[in-house]
């Protein structure tokens, strides 16, 4: 199985690979820059070289990039929307430089202007980024917890967008277990999980599922609360993850944890828990 965590690039982006190896990751996710601001520097040629050579010397694959937090690709505010699209263009470009195949995006909030308007803005943003940056990077749309005004809580939301992206080979999805569960998709029982994945297959197609974000949930089923919990300590629970990790579809995908680091656990604890629960 391919299991990893979200890794810090603090100090220098290539250090992410050292940290991933230290944690025994087969795959991992990064932000290519500070996720809490708009400003960023271009990647230096030296940093790109260090990152790509360390990566190719390792057996880690794939690496996944996550978009920073501030961009809202569904925003009705012109200024914010423009900056958000520019951020997406930059991330797709940076993924290409770093030999990273996937860029995970949140679909944002339409801020009360309606889901259709939200879809339109996200579709335009994807088309703009993919037509501006000519590389092989694939944008992965991440399902959300379905909080108020958010786009992406239902599989149908993702499909609406995918169907209108022009470069079909460059859009796919990332499935977050915490988000799906809190959006109302049951995952904790074998049959329910199979049904959820069958629904995803019918609406989007399992062939488009490229990455799984493996997180437990502080909110209950259908709570629409987006708060990640340590594996096994949330409402999905140890038994739920045993079932998830032994599912034939899920276990073949890159699994990336975005779990907390606090007094109850850290990356090492969560990775060990996943490996323990993955054994039948
Ligand atoms: Mn995310
Ligand atoms: Mn996620
Ligand atoms: Zn989340």
Can you give a write-up of this model?
The protein has 280 residues and is of the alpha/beta class. The chain has an eight-stranded parallel β-sheet. Strands 8-9 form a two-stranded antiparallel sheet. The mean pLDDT is 98. It has one domain (3-278): Divalent-metal-dependent TIM barrel enzymes (TIM Barrel), CATH 3.20.20.150. The longest helix is centred in the first third of the chain and has 20 residues, at 78-97. Helix 3 links the parallel strand 3 and strand 4 (102-105). The protein is built from nine helices and ten strands. The chain has helices at 15-22, 45-57, 78-97, 115-132, 155-162, 177-183, 190-203, 237-245, 267-278; strands at 3-5, 28-30, 63-66, 102-105, 138-142, 171-176, 209-214, 216-217, 228-229, 255-257.
Rg over C-alpha atoms, rounded to the nearest angstrom: 18 Å
In the sheet with the most strands, the strands line up as 1-10-7-6-5-4-3-2
Number of helices: 9
Order of helices and strands: EHEHEHEHEHEHHEEEHEH
Low-confidence sequence ranges: none
The tally of domains stands at 1
CATH architectural category: Alpha-Beta Barrel
Bound molecules: manganese (II) ion, zinc ion
Describe the main β-sheet briefly.
Answer: 8 strands, parallel
Structural class, by secondary structure, is alpha/beta
- The N- to C-terminal Cα distance equals 13 Å
Q: Approximately how much helix is present in the residues?
A: 25-40%
CATH superfamily: Divalent-metal-dependent TIM barrel enzymes
Oligomerization category of the chains in this entry: single chain
Level-1 CATH class name = Alpha Beta
Average pLDDT: 98
